[in-house]
């Protein structure tokens, strides 16, 4: 009984204060907490590290998924039944997502890993990255397995250059040949 009396008194004491005053007090408190907890500096990196861990393998895997979806779309043909339309829609969505992932991962390599000394040894590196970004976009907008194959070939070139800059011989392979 005592607990319910306290709860009732507390309820009425809170409700005696005008609602707008209580709201202003809550906002002031939230503003204070927000300003105290907000970071004073912002930093960003591909993994919010910067971790220094780079590898073109993620782009290769995404490109393999692009090629796989291109082949599946081609195999569907022009069927207009509901199952074919649903499958085609899913395959296109996956293909576009994976092409964007490949583009992002390659952009991280280009902007965060490769340095001026790499450009001295590989003067066409900037052009290769520009062309590969265009290939990623082409795979998003078109449906042709030849585009996926071209993307994988371009990623293989980046793979070979990347590992050469590290002084390592890492063979390029496909998970789904």
Commentary on this structure:
The termini are far apart. The model has no long low-confidence stretch (mean pLDDT 86). The protein has helices spanning 2-16, 19-37, 57-76, 82-113, 116-121, 125-141, 145-165. It is built from 7 helices and no strands. It folds into 2 domains: 2-32, no CATH class; 57-165, Nickel-containing superoxide dismutase (Four Helix Bundle (Hemerythrin (Met), subunit A)). The protein is flat. By secondary structure, the protein is mainly α.
CATH homologous superfamily identity of the largest domain? Nickel-containing superoxide dismutase
The overall pLDDT, averaged over residues, is 86
CATH overall fold name of the largest domain: Four Helix Bundle (Hemerythrin (Met), subunit A)
Q: Strand fraction band?
A: under 5%
The N- and C-terminal alpha carbons lie at a distance of: 75 Å
Q: What is the CA-based Rg, rounded?
A: 27 Å
- Count of DSSP H/I helices: 7
Shape: flat
Element pattern in H and E: HHHHHHH
- The number of domains is 2
Uncertain residue ranges: none
